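User: quick one, sequence for these tokens?
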């Protein structure tokens, strides 16, 4: 178990090498008799709190623990550093803000990995990883966020305040510029989110990272266009008081699957294909095309229309076309349990 110092005026700071400083004066001071730099490492606990593991406390300092547990509220600063504003924890000083300077190196479906560079008391450099558990979501401004669940049931949100885009593999990517801790040289960092697109509701486009959890970006959208080779959505990403327009274009192939519905197959990285599934009311519009009133896979209207040439259908789509012709002017429902 971690513990804290008994001094009610103690404050915590971080030195330039991500080492914890304990200041027994209760206020910022450069005097060494008050400030002590602890050789050690941070770690993330199962409840998403953070502890500092002291490698070797001073042998004559009976007050110094081997582990200091710190609790507070998580955030990202403008340079994408990981910050925690500490709770008061019975101390006379108000919550200290600790800034861990490092890099976000992984955005797995239910976690965020952050690398830290530190120096030991022998001036040896080392790198280690902190991993927070949680879920990826979009906020009301369509920004990417990471929700951190805490032990008391509350949540903190790490908000990525820049814009995002999609690459040629239809993956969400987020880029930010940052100076390296040691060399101060600026570099572009790119985060890639592995997932797939889905359309469930009117005015919403979703990017699913994990079907079994809450890790899904639900983006609010405006205009949507459905064509024979692509689906295109318009949305805005809120950046402070401004709004940056973004066009999301998904390229793929339409077809009709018996007992499933109308599908739009999108190819992702490594040639992995995932289908967006729709229900629809289908009707022959003229001798060359079929018109569809699109619904989601639960047969709820999403206020979208699609016109497809008969020529692009193959396999089960041709079977459906023959069935549709047999119905003359009658509209036919596909998907959501309907079959032909």
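Assistant:
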């Amino acid at each position: 178990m971690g513990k804290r110092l008994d001094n009610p005026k103690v404050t915590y700071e971080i030195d330039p090498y991500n080492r914890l400083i304990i200041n027994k004066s209760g206020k910022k001071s450069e005097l060494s008799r008050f400030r002590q730099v602890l050789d050690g490492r941070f770690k993330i606990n199962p409840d998403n709190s953070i502890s500092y593991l002291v490698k070797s406390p001073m042998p004559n300092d009976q007050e110094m623990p081997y582990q200091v547990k710190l609790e507070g509220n998580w955030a990202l600063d403008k340079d994408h550093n990981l910050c925690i504003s500490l709770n008061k924890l019975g101390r006379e000083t108000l919550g200290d803000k600790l800034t861990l300077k490092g890099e976000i190196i992984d955005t797995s479906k239910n976690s965020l990995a952050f690398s830290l560079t530190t120096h030991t008391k022998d001036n040896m450099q080392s790198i280690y990883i902190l991993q927070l558990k949680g879920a990826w979501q979009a906020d009301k401004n369509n920004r990417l966020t990471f929700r951190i669940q805490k032990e008391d049931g509350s949540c903190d949100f790490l908000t990525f305040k820049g814009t995002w885009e999609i690459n040629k593999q239809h993956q969400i990517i987020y880029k930010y510029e940052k100076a390296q801790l040691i060399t101060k040289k600026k570099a572009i960092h790119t985060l890639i989110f592995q997932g797939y697109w889905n359309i469930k509701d009117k005015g919403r486009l979703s990017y699913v990272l994990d079907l079994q959890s809450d890790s899904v970006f639900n983006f609010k959208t405006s205009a949507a266009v459905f064509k024979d080779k692509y689906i295109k959505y318009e949305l805005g990403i809120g950046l402070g008081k401004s709004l940056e327009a973004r066009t999301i274009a998904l390229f793929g192939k339409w077809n009709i699957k018996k007992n499933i519905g109308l599908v739009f197959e999108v190819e992702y990285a490594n040639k992995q294909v995932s289908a967006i599934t729709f229900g629809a009311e289908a009707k022959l519009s003229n001798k060359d095309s079929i018109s569809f009133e699109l619904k989601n896979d639960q047969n709820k209207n999403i206020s979208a229309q699609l016109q497809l040439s008969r020529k692009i259908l193959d396999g089960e789509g041709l079977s459906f076309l023959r069935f549709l012709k047999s119905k003359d002017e009658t509209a036919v429902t596909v998907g959501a349990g309907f079959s032909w």
